[in-house]
Hints:
Number of domains: 2
Strand content: under 5%
Helix content: over 70%
Structural class: mainly alpha
Largest sheet: none
Radius of gyration: 34 Å
Amino acid sequence: MAPNPTKIPSTLKPIAEELLENSYARENLQEGAEKLREAYERAGKRRVKPSKDRKIRRQVEAAIAAIDEGTAALASGRKKPKRTGRNVVLLVIGAAAAGAGILVATNEDFRNKVLGSAKALGEEIAGSEESGGSDEVGATGGGSVS
Length: 146
């Protein structure tokens, strides 16, 4: 049975409102339409059968996936997923740095080991630069005399 023409606007109104509010669904539907348009244009330009063109097939598959995601988001009211991966990584790095700081601050043996080796390394570098600089000058001076 055909739908009553007077009831069509009242049926479509909630869908249209949701589409206006849900940018995630709107973006996916728009992307799907663009992919279909690209596939159609490529099929019109090429002399190859569209069923054998791999790029057209990929474009149509991407369009179907985007339209499917858009309609699912529209039907369920799903919004754009938040990126939590970066936040988790930063949280783990921050916790590790805080733990290392607490360990250095509270454990005297570990602090001496870390800071002592850093001091020794700094002194060794400073000492080698002072003696190394005079060795380099002497080596170049000896080479010019010979």
